[in-house]
Amino acid sequence: MTEFLQQLLNGLSLGAIYALIALGYTMVYGVLRFINFAHSDVFMVGAFIGYYAGQHLPENTLGGGLVVLTAAMLGCALLGVMIERLAYRRLRGGPTLNVLITAIGVSLLLESSGQVFFGAEPRMFPAVFPAKHFAFGGLVISSNQLVVIAVALLLVVALQLIVFRTKIGTAMRAVALNPKAAQLVGINNNTVISFTFALGSALAGAGGILYALNYPSIDPLMGVMPGLKAFVAAVLGGIGNIPGAALGGLILGTVETFVGGSQFSTYKDAIAFGVLILILLFRPAGLLGKFTVEKV
């Protein structure tokens, strides 16, 4: 039972990170109906913003950790707006394939630029939050794991409040439902879409910091695998559905952790993508997604 609880805690911590990244995928898809494959590299940029910000702040302090987290979220929000404005805006309304190819190009650009500006060698992420361990019998709980789960929970709740309790959230849902009708009633679609990218990218930046707390070696290619798994989590929960993305992230992180602690640990990545195939075969809309009928 102790080992089970330990693996469950580890899985929830990893799943919370996947959930934050998946929320960025699902928000952009919900509004624009395309997958922003550069999102995983925004996650990487967030980790490096935290790395450089942490160099100038005292380590192992709650205040310093919150400053680093805020800096990464703001920096990634700005990067997300720039990506949308420079790379995607002119392609809006065109073939979806063009946007997908551009998204892959932006992803490769960020990875290559990261290797130029940050260096290709791995860096050790500073201990920006106080790192302590608590033992309860055979169960060992890290303060970093608690920070990851708590911050992820707060951000998911804040996102729900923004989307369903604010004017900009109402505008986001209107644009997602019918962009032309939203524009006719006075909504500035460009502003709403930029805000969506900013919000999703800020969550990716937070995910980069939380990931680096538990896996402190960062490099310019660190976002590739977490990004792919977060995409699987978004599809698992229901792409375009915010609670679904959070649920999918928690499930995938937990499954991956339990598999990693078993004799099948070498297949944990294969099992994660196998889950995606099964979901697409038996429930294409995801666990919380809704089936929609498209008129020809």
Number of helical stretches of at least 4 residues: 11
Q: Summarize the main sheet.
A: 2 strands, antiparallel
Indicate the proportion of strand residues.
under 5%
Shape: globular
Radius of gyration: 19 Å
Distance between the termini: 54 Å
Structural class: mainly alpha
> How are the strands of the largest sheet arranged?
1-4
Low-confidence stretches: none
Helix content: over 70%
Q: How would you spell out the order of helices and strands?
A: HHHHEEEHHHHEHHH
Mean pLDDT across the residues is 89
Report on the structure:
With 296 residues, the protein is mainly alpha-helical. The protein is 71% helix and 4% strand. It has 11 helices and 4 strands, in the order ααααβββααααβααα. The protein has helices at 2-32, 39-54, 62-88, 96-117, 143-165, 167-177, 179-184, 189-214, 224-237, 242-260, 268-282, and strands spanning 123-124, 133-136, 139-142, 217-218. It has a two-stranded antiparallel ribbon. The chain has a two-stranded antiparallel sheet with strand order 2-3. α2 (39-54) packs parallel to α4. The radius of gyration is 19 Å and the shape is globular.
